[in-house]
Structure formats: C-alpha cells, structure tokens
Amino acid sequence: MKSYGSAARGVLGTLRDLRADGERAAERALAAAVAARRAAEAEEGRLAAEVASARAALAAARRQGGGEGGGGAAGGERAADAQARRRWWARLAAQESAAVEVLDRHRKRVVAPAIDADAAARAAHVRARQRREVVEKAIARREAAARREAERREEAANDDRYLRARTNTPTTGK
C-alpha cells in the first residue's frame, strides 16, 4: 500500500492521487508524441537530403552533358547520343520530382500531424498539471484552516486555564 500523508485521508487526497495519475499519463503521452515528432522530423531530413541529392545529380548531368541544347549537330554529336542524353536527363528529372513529391507527402501526412499531436499532448499535460495543482491548493487551504482552528482552540484553552488559576487562588481576606 502507498503511504499517504494526513491530507490524503479524505476525498481531496483521493482526488489528488487520481489527478497525479492523470498527470503521469499525460507525461507519458507527451513523451510518445515528442518521440514521434522527432522520428518524423528525422525522416523529413533524410527525404530532404534525397531531394538535394537528386537535384545535384540532375545539375551535374546537365553540366557534364553540355547543358540544354548544348553540343547539338554543330558539336558533332550524333542524334542517338543526344536522345540518350535527354532521356537520361528526363529520368533524373523524374527522380527529382518523385523525391520532391515524397517529401511533400511526408510533410503533409506525417510531420504536420506529429507536430499537432505534440502540441496537443503539451496542452493536455499542462491541463493535467493545473488540475492536480488546484486540488493540492485546496488541500493546503484545508490544512491551513485546520491549523488556525487548532491554534484558536489552544489559545482558548490557555485563556481558560489562566482564568481558572486566577479564580481558584485563595484570598487572604484582609
């Protein structure tokens, strides 16, 4: 069994325990949401690197192949070689556009929901902590009121003792 303090004996103590459990559950959900967001952002970084690599490969192929329209018939290039080069560029451009599409899809379907889930989990954690703190403040107010009442009773008892001591003092009758 758990060891409870004096405040935990009543209804507020039970409620505080429930709210603390809720806060711990919100912490676990927040940790899971943060982990999912980090994983999504890491994958986004990997996909962005693939896009950059595809763009660099296309640019390098065009530079090496003489650029758009370069080396044509005046350069002594055969028509079959030019067609092969353009097909190669088209394949590289298709790879680049596919990589961009995959990155955009990942951002929309994975990263954005992960960011939203992270924000929602943070808000839920804040709400759970606030709910626990409200109960703890109520417990503290109740304990403070009980202390004040005990102090008042102690003071009244001391006053009564003093009055009894004065009235029970024998007089010498002079």
Per the CATH scheme, the topology name is Helix Hairpins
Low-confidence stretches: none
- What's the alpha carbon Rg, rounded to whole Å? 39 Å
Average pLDDT metric:
87
Kindly describe this structure.
The longest helix is centred in the C-terminal third of the chain and has 89 residues, at 79-167. This protein has two helices and no strands. The relative contact order is 0.13. The chain has one domain: Orthogonal Bundle (Helix Hairpins). By secondary structure, it is mostly helical.
Topology:
Layout: H1 11-64, H2 79-167
Helix pairs in contact: 1-2
Describe this protein with a few key phrases.
mainly alpha; 82% helix; 2 helices; rod-shaped; 174 residues
Short description:
By secondary structure, the chain is mostly helical. The chain has helices spanning 11-64, 79-167.
